[in-house]
Amino acid sequence: MTTSEFRPPMRPGDAAPDFTLPAVHRDGTVSLADYRGRSPLLLALFRGIYCPFCRRQIAQLGLTREKLLALGVETLAVVASQLERARLYFRYRPTRVPLAADPDLVIHRAFGVPKLEATPKVMEALRTVRTDASGALPEPLPILDAANALDEMDRFEFTETDTAEAERQFPMDIGQFLVDREGIVRWANLESAKGGWAGIGKFPTDEELLAAARALGR
Predict the structure, then answer these.
(1) 125-160 CB burial, b ≥16 within 10 A, e <16
(2) Which residues contact 24 (CB under 8 A, 6 or more apart)?
(3) How far, CA to CA in Å, does 197 sit from each of 59, 122, 124, 125?
(4) Helical pair 52-69 and 143-154, crossing angle rounded to 10 deg
(5) Spatial distance between the Cα atoms of 44 and 170, rounded to a whole number of angstroms
(6) Cβ atoms within 10 A of the Cβ of 107, count?
(7) CA 169: distance to chain centroid?
(8) What is the DSSP letter of 139?
(9) Residues 183-210: pLDDT tens digits?
(10) pLDDT band at 126 (very low <50, low <70, confident <90, very high)
(11) N or C: which end of the chain has fewer CB within 10 A?
(12) Nearest 5°: phi and psi at 204?
């Protein structure tokens, strides 16, 4: 995979970059400083809500959050959508995970979540590599077809904002980072890290996330 203009992904042992973003689930902002010295944080960075894989993963993360809280770990999802668009979507489809908006991909760049170049090889992979979106589809489909099928299942209606963000962000990876209370990354995962393009649409299981959280106490 060829990437463009983003720093290398953050790795365990790296100091997480500070950030402050507008909160989606409430007024005000949310920052890494809110958690520093108080609790570890699972930080999940998503594409815009135009992404059907991301919408479903955010909903699932809302359930996983309760299990992480039992281990003393907070969760924050960052969606790369305009604030008002994100607030409107989640007003009608609420989730249990706190949310922040980062339409300009500032945090994605800071954490090194790669944005790929839309080369002919990449486009061919999107048309041919298959995914079942972690079981959301009855059978694996090519990535682009899988995204369309999920949009139909969700009855998702694109706005001009969604379309513009999809064009600007394409093709973007997503990532998850477990940051300890001192602000050090202790675990990291990228969507494409396992199996390359076959990893698109997949998200770490509860078991993987909880194992990473438990390892913080060792």
Answers:
(1) bbeebbbebeebbeeebebeebbebbbeeeebeeee
(2) 79, 83, 86, 87, 90, 99, 100, 101
(3) 23, 9, 11, 7
(4) 70
(5) 18
(6) 22
(7) 13
(8) S
(9) 999 999 998 776 677 677 789 999 999 9
(10) confident
(11) C
(12) -55, 140
Q: With cut-offs at 50, 70 and 90, classify the pLDDT of residue 4.
A: very low
62 is written with which tokens? 């809302």
**Cα distances (Å, whole numbers) of residue 6 to 58, 105, 111, 172, 217:** 24, 10, 9, 11, 32
Closest Cα partner for 22 from 12, 31, 11, 35? 31
Secondary element (H or E) of residue 84: helix 83-92
Task: Say how far apart CA 188 and CA 21 lie, in whole Å.
Answer: 21
Q: What global pTM score does this model have?
A: 0.93
Residue 51's Cβ-side half-sphere holds a number of Cα atoms within 13 Å equal to 27
CA atoms within 13 A on the CB side of 187: 20
- Give me the residue label for tokens 């682009």: 144
**How far is the C-alpha of 74 from the C-alpha of 10, rounded, in Å?**
19
Tracing tokens 């920052």 back to the chain, one arrives at 31
Residue 83 DSSP SS3: helix
* CA dist., res. 40 & res. 76, Å (int): 11
Which domains, from first to last, does the chain contain? 20-115+160-215 (3.40.30.10)
